[in-house]
Amino acid sequence: MIKKLNTADLKLPPLQLTAASRDIVLSGVVCIALIVAAFFWLQQNEKKRVESLRINALTSAIADQQRKTLTAYVANLGARVDSASLRLQTLDTGKANISGVEQTLAAAFPEALNALLLHVGAQGIADEDTHTQRLRNNIEIDMLRKSLETRSTIVETYQHNGEWLLSFVRPVSSSAAFFISFGIRETIGHVLSASAGSTVTNALLQRYGGRESTIIAASPLLNEFEKQHHLPFGLVLKVYPRQEMLGQLAGDNTLPWLVCLLCIGLVCGSHSIFFLRSLQQPAPLARPSKVEPPSDPAVELERQIQQELTKKLSAGRQRESTHPTPKFDPTQQMRPPMPDIPERRNKAATPPANTEKLRDDDVFDLSDDGDISLDNAAFSGAASAAPPQETVKHNRNCFRAYDIRGIADRDLGDEQCLELGRAIGSEALNRGQSKILLGRDGRISSQRIRDALVKGLLSTGIDVIDLGLIATPMLHYACHDLNIGSGVMITGSHNPPEYNGLKISLNFSSLTSEDIANLATRIEQKDFLSGEGTLTGDSIEQRYIDRICSDVVIAQNLRVVIDAGNGATSRVAPELFEELGCDVVPLFCDIDGNFPNRSPDPTIPENLDALANAIIEHGADIGIALDGDGDRIAVVTASGRRPSADQLLMVLADDIISRNPGCDILFDVKCTRSLPQLIVERGGRPVMWKCGHSHMKRKMAHTGALLGGEYSGHIFFNERWYGFDDGMYAAARLIEALTLADTDMDTELDRYPALVSSPEILLPIKDEDKFAFINRVAAEHRFTDAKLIDIDGLRFEFRNGWGLIRASNTGPAISLRFEGESAVAMNSIRDAFAELIASIDPALADSL
């Protein structure tokens, strides 16, 4: 019978606190108090300091950007005034025609308060026979006097009848001047408010002779964060953060206090464990001891032997741990010694039968030096090195003179693009770049390439800012606007739909052929950095449009047909020219990576047939065609003429040299002989250079040339722009030049000498043979009556024309072009080249 246990008979003593328990409780209270005090101090002091630093940094950045914007805006007004003054020199500015001239000026400057043509009498501004009585005060009279004396533009800011004015005076002749005034609050104030948004408020002041006058006041003023910048003509810009910005930059207190509570919880939890362990417990109740059965001698002996073995094994492990592990020497075989057992030795020395029939997945791998290694997957017990990574094959021919380009599905697969991203990111980081911009065109393969490229870039530790689907010049503009000097554009440019590629710039410079070859070498050697970059997004489209609209002035309302060819400019180009004041007729302005309407290359004349028809249908003044990524331009005139890019350069050079006598104009070796002749006649300096956008941009930077261009349609501006090729900006500047001169493209083309020229001719040849072929032409030609220009290929200048032969930078081809004073002269030069090519490679001459 089992007796029921009465729990009342079990008397447990109460828990007792020891000194250790009290110390644990006290230390927990002190820790909690210190944690709360530390977080409170951080919230009250450090948080405010960090917020102040952030506010100051952001305010300084906005102030600097606004300074640049205002300076550029005033400079643009001055350039427009200079252009208008030059235009006035070609018009009838007699007294009888003042009203008509001033109406023309008012149309060109709709934002101006007034635009005057002032005549000065024989005795100066005090002469009765003058129109200077229309000037409002002595400041304006003094401006006119200085302008006539110095023959330069005079600019002043001043107040008249409570209105703050920004005025320009520019001489038109020895007895006439152009005077124009703008309201500062309406013009500069509008620019300030547009750039400030809801983050800052601005004050604009004038300082003159120790006095300070407020033009635009800011309220409320947070003076502790004030930033000042001096602007031209005595103006001072002050920038203050708004309360809205302070609220946005103020940190949220929730997370820090949650961290504080977590720390307190950890302290409480850990101290509770120690506290419970420190409590004194009564001795356990005595229980009847269990009677052990008598031990079996055999079992006891086995137990003792087991204990002895355990002790020896432990001692052996301790002895082994006192000896360092030998380092692996790749020059020696580090196989563990085997016992000298005859059976095992003989078996190892016998080669396997029929070794030629080993499968690819057999456990043995015969390396180049003849050593045999074991596969980890087949023999997991052996400690061997990890198998090498699978080599990704890259088509070396894709690494071209100034970009990477190939057939997307064949040459730019996911693994290839992943390694390209790793190579580009590693190279950018080695050049001190921490961020890189990324853009893509609208081709079918561009999104896939983008995804793989981003993975590769981020794996190096570089931060990526994705600008989405944009045109190539918009990426170049973003580099300058965001002050991030590196960018990658995923685009096939003007090539057919199945092609794609990468245009790369690092530290504000396009990669050279050597740089791109180094990328290929880096990939071959797996020379990649490792890290964790971050991916963010941004939009540049509206900033790009606003920047061009603040720079370009189109003086007449033209009807323009924009043919985007279903490329990357399909959205932005029509909107840009509408904001510039044109009546836009869009053509093929839906992004479609298949390019269903025409080839992405607009420089081929037959690709412009639809544009020419649209011009006739809509009665347009001009047609603009852009290539697949927007960095090249082609034009069709109102009469249907299709001028080449070097003819467009003649119009633009004429315009730029008129404002900048003596400036350099850059062009490539394919351009017409008429272009350097016109540059010299207008007072400029012609500079011939290599083909290729990266070569041209570097030469533009080196020479300071204000304009550059290639026969392929790339046009570069250093005057008022950033020196990169941009088809949309080039079109805007072309229309500006035409409208300010009150002319059209057909009229301009009629002004220039017409030579007979061929299009660019491409003869197919293997990539590895094309440069050797050009070297043979240089060695074997007999053009003794011609001057040789060999800066890029071979250009032979004859008395009545010229011929060019060079290796193409973009494909396996030889490029030729011919020009002569007549068709007979051009064909004669062409026949001489055909005879020379036939003597070297008859099959190649058949294509010519």
Automatic annotation (TrEMBL):
Biased composition (Basic and acidic residues): 312-322
Listed Gene3D superfamilies: Alpha-D-Glucose-1,6-Bisphosphate, subunit A, domain 3, Alpha-D-phosphohexomutase, C-terminal domain
UniProt pathway annotation: Nucleotide-sugar biosynthesis; GDP-alpha-D-mannose biosynthesis; alpha-D-mannose 1-phosphate from D-fructose 6-phosphate: step 2/2
Membrane-spanning residues: 24-42, 255-276
Sequence segments annotated as region (Disordered): 312-357
Substrates-to-products reaction catalysed: alpha-D-mannose 1-phosphate = D-mannose 6-phosphate
Alphabetical UniProt keywords: Isomerase, Magnesium, Membrane, Metal-binding, Phosphoprotein, Transmembrane, Transmembrane helix
Domain Alpha-D-phosphohexomutase C-terminal: 766-835
InterPro entries named in the record: A-D-PHexomutase_a/b/a-I, A-D-PHexomutase_a/b/a-I/II/III, A-D-PHexomutase_a/b/a-II, A-D-PHexomutase_a/b/a-III, A-D-PHexomutase_C, A-D-PHexomutase_C_sf, A-D-PHexomutase_CS, Alpha-D-phosphohexomutase_SF
Reported cofactor(s): Mg(2+)
EC number per UniProt: 5.4.2.8
Family: Belongs to the phosphohexose mutase family.
Protein name, as recorded: phosphomannomutase
High-level lineage: Bacteria, Pseudomonadati, Pseudomonadota, Gammaproteobacteria, Cellvibrionales
